[in-house]
Amino acid sequence: MKHTIQALVENRFGVLARVASLFSARGYNIESLVVGETQDSTMSCMTIVVDAEDERILEQIKKQLHKLIDVITVIDFTHREYIDRDLILIKILNNGKNKTVIEKLIKKYSVKIIEKTKEVFLLEVCSNRRQEDEVLKELKSLGIKELVRTGRIAIGK
Amino acid sequence: MQGAKILIESLIREGVEVIFGYPGGSVIPLFDCLYDAPIKFILTRHEQAAAHAADGYARSTGKVGVCLSTSGPGATNLTTGIATAYMDSVPIIAITGQVKTSLIGNDAFQEADITGITRSISKYNYLVKDVKDLAYTVKEAFYLANTGRPGPIVIDLPVDVQIQEADFNYPDKIEMRSYNPICYGHPGQIKKVLKYIYKAKKPVIIAGGGILISGASNELLKFAEKAKIPVSTTLLGLGGFPSTNDLSLGMPGMHGTVYANMAITESDLLISVGSRFDDRVTGRLDAFAPEAKIIHIDIDPTSISKNIKVDVPIVGDAKNILGQLIEEIKVSKLSDLSKWHKKIKDWKKEHPLVYNKKNSGKIKPQHVIEEIYSQTKGKAIIVTEVGQNQMWASQFYKYDYPRQFLSSGGLGTMGYGFPAAIGAKIANPKREVIVIAGDGSIQMNIQELATLTTYNIKVKIIILNNSCLGMVRQWQELFYNRRYSGTPLKNPDFVKVAQGYGVKGIRVKKVSEVKGKVKEIISAKTSVLADFWIEPEENVFPMVPAGEAINRMIGGMA
Fold first, then answer.
1. pTM of the predicted model as reported, rounded to 2 decimal places
2. How high is the ipTM of this complex?
3. Between chains, do A69 and B127 touch, taking CB under 8 Å as contact?
4. Domain extent at residue B407
5. Among partner residues A9, A64, A69, which is closest to B144 by beta-carbon distance?
6. N or C end of chain B: smaller count of CB under 10 Å?
7. How many domains, chain B?
8. Domains (range + CATH), chain A
């Protein structure tokens, strides 16, 4: 099961390494980890998405996270109401068929064409977890040339 | 004021009396300041020993121990000591020199990324890149080291920061929004615990190192006596509850007493205080206290429900929580425990802690420990190495006082005991400090004999010499068909080695000499290294094979 965990941390060097090593030391792969400053520049917010099979290990990791000296609070959004976003940049081959599909997607989802060259459309997709699968499925069928993403951020309701 | 001076001044403000360490290129400015500072400097002959000595100082007093090394190899040599302190929650500060800030990351001479290396073996670490942060860093480091669950803190200090100038303002106190250890137990949880205690007919307390760290041994004694609950003390908890008390069950687990393991297995309520259900204590998890409700009192929430699922967790300081329990417990509500006490008494009678005393002509290590116990009247500080020597020392010396037994429990570091004893002796110059070592482990830091001579430190070293790495040999004997791979030792003449360093050396080979020689060692006014040639194939019993249920013990059932 995917868990979205958020940690408010002191904005110091070394914090990212401490958090990352908590996961890596237990052989946990992090799906995404996003760090950014908050409204208070002395504090950063880390949003971590992990796929945890063993809930007990995850519980341990959350406690360990909280135990880290630089971590101020830890929230697991899994059983809470929250809003999440992931920004994806995608290059899709520029042809007539693709254009029609993309235009349909633009109407339905938060998808934008940022740039168009002779070869490709450069799309920006801003999605939450639910929509992400649908949009990506459609786009994959068109043949994705390149895809980069920011990783998920989340905020409680 | 220069960075080096700021550091030393800060240490003085923290009440540091002694630093154990070793100089090198990246800490010359620091050593220059130390030259006329009112802090004693003890030069060990290896940085690892400096870290263990700081650890021994800390464990025997509860104060923060300090060690110091240069960058690169000096710093990496400290790491075994840092990891040892981390596993056993010992407050030490390790100060390491670092190459110039402009060279960090350039593979400079004697450069090692020590903050990276120690990240997972220290409670916290700092790389101080600006001299203006130094005083605050030291204050925070001491605060972190010795509050909550204590642990080692590393301060990495580049050599250029040591000579930069800043005003010296030492902060009065530290406030951290991200670090606020919980001290008192939640009142609701305390009430819940009492309900379980009132219902229990077969309760047992497991007391760990947390009792000593929080200074809770008086409270533990009072609570156990008030509630009439038997107490088993883990290796690190030894001395936290008087071993000679009727309620004492001795150690649980792999080399624990039969009666402690039987009592835990049959108990209906297990109260763990300041212990973390280490695998050497629990054995096979699904067979550990299968009938018991589990109450876990610990200052570290991550220890709770880590190995054993807990029914009532209480996060907080052991001393405070036991105090809360003593205050609220109503003796009239306790169940009748007389049957339970009778059962335990019978177990103790049927399966006492024993060894084969039949005279084989060879000295029995247990006999040596018993003799030391009786001749020191149970009052010495005993520091062990790791292996069979450690287990015999934990079984056959009866510890009644907190902080009188020092041993590397979690990490199991051979080479810990001797340097730790040096730290303990410096902290407790009037106490008798005795190292119980094996012929293997003593050689891991034997160079510290030079430190004894240099500073005239009076430590007594007992080598239980069986010419092999005894604990591994024991496992090979029992589980690997006596294939003694890598365990036989060809030893030097320890008496001559001692003499070469200017330490008195004694050899003891005959059973009949044990009493007299122990007397000679204890009454000596100098350091002594005594080489006891013991029964080479003596085993530590009872023993729970690794991964087996703790009531499935082999040996020691005589």
1. 0.95
2. 0.88
3. no
4. 365-533
5. A69
6. C
7. 3
8. 2-79 (3.30.70.260), 83-156 (3.30.70.1150)
